[in-house]
Write a structure and sequence with these properties.
heterodimer, A: mainly alpha, about 5% strand, B: mainly alpha, three-stranded antiparallel sheet, two-stranded antiparallel ribbon, 5 strands, elongated
């Protein structure tokens, strides 16, 4: 990946989603017990925190290689970086759908931003496969 | 991978998937007269939908091993979305173990873990171990797709 190239559409989606999810993780996620809490709050950490962490990891990888010219190894535990994004993106999407159908009460703005971010990560990761011609999809 | 004999890694994954499925129907959380499985309402505690993902990971891994071993007539593709099956198992095993560890350290108030939770936690760890064993059986890293 050329470190000086402009971010592609998929990279922008992932970076924006990751940033939004990081911010949203500090907003009200849901009310469990008496008062509403964020994804870092009691009864929600760390199960609800996984979603923003996936987003931050994906966004950070792109930001580091695009803007900071950090040279990362070609592979991560046997996965190419495109595969890492695909796996994390799809798992984030599944977790987002999982949270969507779960029964936690009084879902807050942080919840909805996390769900949307998780779906955006999945979409961005799939688009990345096409942009980089990995052959994984299509 | 059409072979009639299960490798140790695949035995671990198959057993882990079976224990995961059984555990998912047993008590995940319990308190006094209240109890819920991974498929039930968690009384606002977020169980169904989230813990269910762990079950689906385990079942998917077990079904793949079972199909590729015992159903030679079923044509299992060599790759899934460009990922080798070793990579798929590693990703799903990691996700299952990570989520169960997250449940383990999450504050649970007055609730107590039920037997189903412990079954699922052990199964998730077994699935991750099995996935790593598959990689070790294959060589030094996950067999790359293609």
């Amino acid at each position: 990946m050329d470190g000086k190239a402009q971010p592609t559409t998929s990279e922008l989606i992932i970076m924006i989603a990751g940033a939004v999810m990081l911010v949203a993780s500090f907003l009200d996620f849901a009310q469990i017990d008496v008062k509403a809490g964020s994804a870092w709050g009691k009864y929600l950490f760390p199960i609800a925190t996984l979603l923003p962490l996936y987003g931050v990891a994906m966004a950070a990888q792109i930001a580091l290689t695009k803007f900071a010219n950090v040279k990362l190894p070609d592979q991560f535990v046997g996965f190419t970086w495109e595969q890492v994004h695909l796996v994390l993106g799809l798992l984030a999407g599944v977790m987002a759908l999982g949270w969507l159908i779960t029964d936690i009460p009084e879902k807050g703005i942080g919840f909805w931003l996390e769900v949307l971010g998780g779906i955006a990560l999945a979409v961005g990761a799939v688009m990345m496969q096409r942009e980089r011609h990995t052959g994984a999809i299509g | 991978m059409n072979q009639t004999k299960l490798s140790p890694a695949n035995i671990v994954i198959l057993a882990g998937g079976a224990v995961m499925l059984i555990g998912s129907f047993l008590n995940f959380y319990q308190f006094a007269s209240f109890s819920t499985s991974a498929w039930g309402s968690g009384e606002g505690f977020g169980v169904f939908g989230i813990a269910t993902i762990v079950v689906l990971c385990g079942v998917a891994m077990g079904v793949h091993v079972a199909l590729s071993t015992f159903a030679p007539n079923v044509n299992v593709p060599d790759t899934l979305l460009g990922l080798s099956w070793d990579q798929v198992h590693l990703a799903l095993g990691f996700q299952a173990a990570l989520m169960m560890l997250a449940f383990l350290i999450r504050a649970k108030g007055p609730l107590e873990f039920g037997i189903g939770f412990w079954f699922m936690l052990l199964a998730a760890i077994a699935l991750l171990v099995g996935a790593i064993m598959r990689i070790n059986e294959a060589g030094s890293g996950p067999r790359a797709a293609g």
